[in-house]
Design goal:
The chain is an alpha+beta fold. The protein contains four helices and eight strands. Strand 6 and strand 7 form a beta hairpin.
Length: 173
């Protein structure tokens, strides 16, 4: 059985052991079998890459409602937004709502083109890639390709956006 000794208070003190299967056990003593220890149920499992990638679908569905407060509710109170269609950095809920009040007038709908997800731990992850927005301006639909990065943290059991950067994709050249 492979063991990873995560923490030790002092020589001979109890340790937290994580088995190769990801099961955490408490109070394991050096040389003692992890199988002889009770499992810790409080150790959270990492989300899958697909679960993190799907958070975009929730965000996109909030866009389609046209309600800037529903979109802003997906952001942490201390989130930072570097939006596609504004030169201003948004650093609080009121500023994020303000951005979406203007952006949602274009009836945006997004679709991912490419996504790269990095799950950092049970409570944080990054989703980076390319997406395409369909916007409606003066009754005409327009596609805008952009780069994005969402940094997520799980707070109070809910995944929230803590940092979101979006910029228009420059032409190849």
């Amino acid at each position: 059985m492979v063991k990873l000794w995560v923490s030790a208070m002092a020589a001979g003190a109890a340790l937290l052991v994580v088995t190769a299967g990801g099961q955490a056990v408490a109070n394991a003593q050096p040389g003692q079998s992890a199988a002889a220890q009770p499992a810790l149920s409080a150790v959270a499992a990492k989300p899958s890459k697909a679960q993190i990638a799907a958070l975009f679908d929730t965000w996109n569905a909030a866009l389609v409602t046209g309600d800037p407060r529903k979109v802003a509710a997906l952001y942490a109170p201390d989130a930072v937004l570097l939006p596609t269609a504004s030169p201003k950095i948004r650093t609080n809920r009121a500023q994020i709502v303000d951005y979406f009040e203007h952006f949602l007038k274009n009836k945006p709908s997004g679709k991912k083109i490419r996504t790269v997800v990095d799950v950092l731990d049970a409570d944080s992850a990054i989703d980076t890639g390319l997406y395409r927005f369909t916007l409606t301006k003066d009754g005409k639909k327009q596609a805008v390709d952009a780069r994005y990065t969402y940094v997520y943290e799980k707070r109070g059991g809910k995944w929230l956006i803590v940092n979101h950067h979006s910029s228009v994709l420059p032409p190849e050249g």
